[in-house]
Write a structure and sequence with these properties.
The structure is a single chain. Helices cover 77% and strands 0% of the residues. It has 160 residues and is mainly alpha-helical. It is globular and about 50 Å long. The N and C termini lie far apart (42 Å).
């Protein structure tokens, strides 16, 4: 199942960059369906969303695409920082709550990304606000994860 999620996501990114809109929409729908079918194990992290953001930057270079790429790099750094601090502290992090839009990691974030990229293809005149909104949500999630890492480290120090 993980290979299906990965392959459809990367194929969608390739179709977005090649401006094959119908194929991209079909692959984004297949990616979303495979993420739903895989459930919690579909947490590929931000890598496929990063491939989609780079494809968007290739297709429509400019500020919104650059902001989305930067937000995804921030999310990757925050995820690594959070995992590092949890491992260093020897504690388990709480699982992200899928009811939260900001900490909707894994399947939730991938589904929002698939819907956003489909909307950007369907309404190219709305690309900038949609990409900016997705970048903002991604950056807020990354900042929330970084603050969670800080809270874990402070909690461990307070217990010592």
């Amino acid at each position: 199942m993980r290979l299906l999620v990965l392959s459809t996501g990367l194929a969608a990114a390739a179709a977005v960059s090649l401006r094959a809109d119908l194929a991209a929409l079909a692959l984004l729908a297949a990616w979303g369906a495979s993420v739903l079918a895989a459930g919690r194990r579909a947490g590929e992290g931000p890598w496929i969303r990063g491939a989609l953001a780079l494809a968007l930057a290739w297709r429509a270079p400019g500020g919104p695409a650059a902001a989305l790429v930067a937000a995804l790099l921030l999310e990757i750094a925050a995820a690594r920082l959070t995992a590092f601090t949890a491992a260093r502290a020897g504690t388990a992090l709480p699982r992200p709550d899928l009811h939260s839009l900001i900490l909707a990691g894994g399947a939730g974030a991938n589904l929002v990304a698939a819907a956003s990229f489909a909307a950007m293809i369907l309404w190219p005149d709305r690309l900038a606000p949609i990409a900016s909104a997705l970048a903002g949500l991604t950056a807020m999630g990354a900042i929330a994860r970084a603050s969670l890492a800080v809270a874990v480290m402070r909690g461990v120090r307070d217990e010592a």
